[in-house]
Amino acid sequence: MSSSSAASLLDVDLRPGKPPMLRVEPTGDAPGWAAERRDALRAVVADHGSVLVRGLGLRDAAEVGAVFRRLTTTGLMTEREAFAARQVYSDGVYSSSKWPPNQPMCMHHELSYTLEFPGMMLFACLGAASAGGATGVADSPTVLNALPPALVQRFEQEGWLLTRTYNEDIGASYADAFGTDDRAAVESYCRANAIEFEWQPDGELRTRQRRSAVVRHPVTGQRCWFNQIAFLNEWTMDPEVHEYLVDVYGADGLPFNTRFGNGDPISQDVVELLTGIYDAHTAREPWQAGDLMLVDNIRSAHSREAFEGSREVLVGMADAVRLGDVAPTGGVTAG
């Protein structure tokens, strides 16, 4: 059955400015429901980049994990190189990244700075914020086409550079990010994954990795703007936080920052251009408790709005893709 034929089996609501939505009734067996409709749900994602399932009534982390596992084709992934800490509920099932509630998480593609990243993101809401907190999505081919051609060409030729300085105070420590505090194991991982590394006198780790900014979708072949250039850049930090971090750690010691692939800094106006184009093409729908969302991690960027109150959204990363398999000819995959 073709993708479009499978997708047609579900009555998906398509509205401008909203992610595709499927309204369902609670069944009492969400994992069974997901297993029966896995191919149809994935077909909707193939056609539209994402789908929000409302009404399934997910109740706890165990049920969410069972649903996530029914929806994958190659299983859930273990996260490596996280930029912020997460709670682990079970193998491959995580909390959303620990990030200040009053600060938005800009549009990004999960783990797009790694050599192996999820092709599919799975989200489930067990508790919705009292205000804000939506997970927005943006179509990456559309975003790419809206960017200035000269800027795209430069990033295609040079790639983008992520610099990180791991510490115990901000973001993920290197033990959190690499799953070990063994220096030899961290160094081995870095060498195997094209990451330049340097240990600092205080014992902390500093890394650099250069990656492709544009990839081809492994199924459709569409060119997709695929990176975390805007999100992990210093100019999307809250100005007061940025000033504090530079004062404490120095301009070269920020927990993370992005540059052009040749090492040149990315100016504030370029970052504002990127975030403005993302904003213009964002689809959003406030979470309700029990919601499920599937997102094609290459076709769609995602974000998290600032929020008030408590918010519990679980995350699964699935269907691993190797960057070398989707980077266009001439794309940069390593530093």
UniProtKB/TrEMBL annotation:
Entry GO MF terms: dioxygenase activity
Keyword Oxidoreductase among record annotations: yes
Stretches with biased composition (Low complexity): 1-10
Ranges where the record places region Disordered: 1-30
Keywords: Antibiotic biosynthesis, Dioxygenase, Iron, Oxidoreductase
The TauD/TfdA-like domain, residue ranges: 29-316
Entry cofactors: Fe(2+)
InterPro entries from the UniProt entry: AlphaKG_dependent_hydroxylases, TauD-like_sf, TauD/TfdA-like
Pfam families on file: TauD
PANTHER family membership: GAMMA-BUTYROBETAINE HYDROXYLASE-RELATED (PTHR10696), TAUD_TFDA-LIKE DOMAIN-CONTAINING PROTEIN (PTHR10696:SF56)
Protein name: TauD/TfdA family dioxygenase
Origin species: Pseudonocardia alaniniphila
